[in-house]
Amino acid sequence: MQRLGELVLARHNTRRLRAMGAVEVGADHYPLMITMHAAWLVSLWLLGTDQEVDPWLLSGFVLLQGLRWWVLATLGPRWTTRIIILPGAPLVADGPYRYISHPNYLVVAAEIALLPLALHLPLIALIFSGLNAAVLVIRIRAESEALSGISRSQTA
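That's the Methyltransferase sequence above. Prediction below.
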């Protein structure tokens, strides 16, 4: 349910940003990312329903949600699941972005590993961690290229 709520928020923010003149970059990989996340959730649903839950690993997953909400709160109306660039808008450098460049990707990578491990599904954790890493290589490259154009224009 959380992921569905995030998709609704992302769609709303994307529409609003586009109405303000924002453009999307790296859209080619977006269906791959959505498919991978959906397959991860389906695999957890199908294979994890009868599994015993490790309370420590589940607690780690729950704690990650605090970092996720910190990211969402920091980006506010600029948060979306797509790479949306708003010309003229400064880069976000507050909240977790003071410490790392892509905190949401760190959260997602940890979730993709931790939740299957909490359900004693190490193969699912390994497979989807690898798939997520492959998608993130593509995504971070596209995002970094787009954002480097913004940071160059801010320093010029």
